[in-house]
Amino acid sequence: MLNEILDQFKKGRTFSFQELADSLNTDVQTVKAQIDYLERQGYIKKVEVYTSCAGGCSSCAGCNQGTQRSIIWELSQ
């Protein structure tokens, strides 16, 4: 399963835990455990990504559409 997860990472797109679990015919908890293992072994690394709102205004007017934090993993070099 570890190689299958790494193959998914090599595709260069993002997947949710549920999408990975579905594609591997397993459950989310198993995928999370495998990703944790791959991270500890140095095959992948965790990256925090921050995205701002897409409201298109020129400055923040306090619309509560602030920065969103996401966690992704990518292949290590």
How would you explain this protein's 3D organization?
By secondary structure, this protein is of the alpha+beta class. The protein has a single domain, classed as Arc Repressor Mutant, subunit A. The chain is 38% helix and 21% strand. The protein contains three helices and two strands, in the order αααββ. It has helices at 2-10, 17-23, 28-40, and strands at 44-51, 68-75. The chain has a two-stranded antiparallel ribbon. Helix 2 (17-23) crosses helix 3. It is elongated and about 45 Å long. The relative contact order is 0.20.
Tell how many strands the DSSP assignment holds.
2
* Global structural class: alpha+beta
- Low-confidence spans: pLDDT under 50, at least 5 residues? none
- The share of residues in extended strands comes to 15-25%
Q: State the CATH superfamily name.
A: Winged helix-like DNA-binding domain superfamily/Winged helix DNA-binding domain
State Rg.
Answer: 16 Å
How many domains make up the 3D coordinates?
1
The appropriate CATH architecture is Orthogonal Bundle
Question: Number of helical segments?
Answer: 3
Give the overall average pLDDT: 85
Give the helices and strands as they follow along the chain: HHHEE
